[in-house]
Amino acid sequence: MAGFKHLVIVKFKEDVVVEDILKGMQKLVSEMDAVKSFEWGQDIEGEEMLRQGFTHASLMTFEDKQGYTAFVGHPSC
């Protein structure tokens, strides 16, 4: 799939409810036409990342860089 890709590796604070974050992201993604795909998962293989506290990753594909810019500029981000 062509487009502008955005990869995020995430480290959550202990009191964060990961499912709430995911629901919020899915809602935001569904409201923005520029987002073409959104993938989310738990990293269980990257030992170095796990040692540093990074436990999840997301990959988003946008129509173009302007779509990405609009997404990160959204008040909910």
TrEMBL record:
<protein>
    <recommendedName>
        <fullName>Stress-response A/B barrel domain-containing protein</fullName>
    </recommendedName>
</protein>
<dbReference type="InterPro" id="IPR013097">
    <property type="entry name" value="Dabb"/>
</dbReference>
<dbReference type="Pfam" id="PF07876">
    <property type="entry name" value="Dabb"/>
</dbReference>
<feature type="domain" description="Stress-response A/B barrel">
    <location>
        <begin position="4"/>
        <end position="77"/>
    </location>
</feature>
<dbReference type="InterPro" id="IPR044662">
    <property type="entry name" value="HS1/DABB1-like"/>
</dbReference>
<comment type="subunit">
    <text>Homodimer.</text>
</comment>
<dbReference type="InterPro" id="IPR011008">
    <property type="entry name" value="Dimeric_a/b-barrel"/>
</dbReference>
